[in-house]
Structure formats: structure tokens, C-alpha cells
Design a protein that fits this description.
By secondary structure, the chain is α+β, with helices and mostly antiparallel strands. It contains 9 helices and 10 strands. The chain has 2 domains: 72 residues, Winged helix-like DNA-binding domain superfamily/Winged helix DNA-binding domain (Arc Repressor Mutant, subunit A, Orthogonal Bundle); 201 residues, GAF domain (Beta-Lactamase, 2-Layer Sandwich).
Length: 294
């Protein structure tokens, strides 16, 4: 199979036609992105097929990534190593949003006894950038870097509701890279009505629209200019927590936490000289103090 001569916007990495575009770097990132939950181990031929690269090129890239510590040889092929997390954490650390949000998220989890996450928009998906979790079995696993279709999540609805008509159309025209087939597939009228409601009330609810058993509410996190920079949620198991409890008990605490994070983030932005501790620890926190009532 011949190497691709140029990347296109459909590749998800930009046009790749400028004189300064480094094709080798783009190919290396393509190889890393070829791995996923459904294929944690790939043979050389599978990597080549998934990326559109010739086998010799894919082999050289894998050898380079192995020498750098990003992949390792295992039975049946190669797999990613935990070092790949450094790439995503570089983004989180550069934002410092995790440092600002963490104490408020931990307090929110202590109050609700439910997991809380923060996400940002990436195309038509949301990507989780911070999480404080309590042990609980849910239908879908969530970690830093997990992506879901935005429209079927409360986090995504909050983020999409802030977009103008043209921006919204452009974002939703991009195919999801989550690999998830959501339960809710609204018409355009249903979608617009749902986002309009979020815009008016200032928060979003999803009730098993992404997957069975997952129910959540989300609120926006804003910067000092009032622009939405992320969304914060509380997630519950639908069989345990009715919508009424989620809205009447958890929503006020969620709105308060999102407001506090927004206020602290605005202060952080206005004082760039302030040194904030880097989020070097695993950002998925377990809170042992939380105990469920019998």
C-alpha cells in the first residue's frame, strides 16, 4: 500500500499542504491514534492498514515510538504505554484548569456522593480533561482523554449551546471519533429545541441518551470574559437516582461549583504571574471520604 501523499481535512489533522507541514510527525501521531479500546494491541499490518502507511514506514515509526517509550512489543503485536498519557496531560497542565477546578470538584463529589467530570469540545465530540470519581459500575468507562459524541451528553449540550448557528453546523458536520453509537438520534428540530432549552436555563440534562443507565447534569465553566471554556457535570446511575433527585438536590450544588471554578479561573487568568502547582499526579481521583448511605 503506498504512503499517502498528503493529509486532507478529512484526516482530522488539518490540510497538511503548507510548506512547513511535517509529514513524518503527522504520521507518528496517526500511528498513536490507531490504537483504541477495541484494538489495544495491533500487528504491523494492522497499523499500516489503519493509517494508510506502507508497512516499512509504519515499522520505522513503531520502532521510533518504542525507543521513545510510547509503545512496547507484546504478544500479538505492539501496544501503547502509559507514557502516551504525558501527551494529553501536557495540555491539561498548560491550561492549569485542573488545578483551579480540583478542590471544587472534590467538594462537589463529597456533597453528592457521585462522580464529577469536566470536558471540552473537540469537533463533534467532548473530551474529558478532569475527573473526580467514586467507585461505581456504569455502562461506559470514563478516563482523562475519553471522548463521547457531544450532542448526547450533558457536557456536550452545554458546550454546543454556546455556539452560533454556523459554528454549530460546522462542528456537528464533523464525524465523531468516539466509536460510540448513541441511543438518541434527534432530528434537527429536536436538536435545536434541546440546545435552545439549555441556552435559556443555563444547564443541561441527559437521561440515558448516550447509553442505558447513564444520567447526568452539566453546567458551564466560564472565563473572565464570560466565555465558556469547559463544562462540569455530575453523573449518576439511572437505576439509583431519579431525575427529580438529580435536578432538585444535585443541580444547585453543581451550579455553585461551576460558579466557583469560573470565579477562580477568572482570577487565575488576571494574575498570570501566580505559580500554580502542576497536575503531575493522576487526575482521576478517588475520594475515600465519600460513603453511601445504607
Amino acid at each position: 500500500m503506498p504512503d499517502r501523499p498528503r493529509r486532507t481535512p478529512a484526516d482530522g489533522g488539518g490540510p497538511g499542504t503548507g510548506p512547513d507541514f511535517i509529514e513524518a510527525l503527522a504520521r507518528g501521531l496517526d500511528v498513536i491514534k490507531a490504537f483504541g479500546p477495541a484494538r489495544p494491541v495491533l500487528a504491523l499490518s494492522e497499523v499500516a492498514a489503519a493509517t494508510g502507511l506502507a508497512r516499512p514506514t509504519a515499522r520505522r515509526i513503531l520502532l521510533t515510538l518504542e525507543e521513545l517509550g510510547y509503545v512496547r512489543t507484546v504478544s500479538g503485536g505492539v501496544s501503547l504505554t502509559p507514557r502516551v498519557l504525558e501527551l494529553g496531560m501536557a495540555y491539561v497542565r498548560s491550561m492549569s484548569l485542573w488545578d483551579v477546578a480540583r478542590p471544587h470538584m472534590e467538594q462537589l463529589v463529597e456533597q453528592t456522593h457521585e462522580s464529577s467530570s469536566m470536558a471540552q469540545l473537540d469537533g463533534s465530540d467532548i473530551v474529558y480533561v478532569a475527573r473526580v470519581a467514586v467507585p461505581k459500575i456504569i455502562a461506559l468507562s470514563v478516563n482523562i482523554g475519553t471522548r463521547f459524541p457531544a450532542l448526547q451528553t450533558s457536557l456536550g449540550k452545554v458546550l454546543l449551546a454556546e455556539l452560533g448557528r454556523d459554528a454549530l453546523a460546522g462542528v456537528l458536520a464533523e464525524p465523531s471519533r468516539s466509536g460510540i453509537a448513541p441511543r438518541w438520534r434527534p432530528t434537527r428540530a429536536e436538536r435545536d429545541a434541546a440546545l435552545r432549552e439549555v441556552r435559556v436555563q443555563g444547564w443541561a440534562l441527559t437521561d440515558e441518551q448516550l447509553a442505558a443507565g447513564i444520567r447526568s447534569i452539566a453546567a458551564p465553566v466560564r472565563d473572565g470574559d464570560g466565555e465558556v471554556v469547559a463544562a462540569l457535570n455530575v453523573t449518576v446511575h439511572a437505576a439509583e437516582t431519579p431525575v427529580a433527585v438529580l435536578v432538585q438536590q444535585h443541580l444547585p450544588r453543581l451550579l455553585a461549583a461551576a460558579g466557583q471554578i469560573s470565579a477562580d479561573w477568572a482570577v487565575h487568568q488576571s494574575a498570570p504571574h501566580t505559580v500554580v502547582r502542576a497536575a503531575t499526579a493522576e487526575p482521576v481521583s478517588r475520594v475515600p471520604r465519600v460513603r453511601r448511605a445504607p
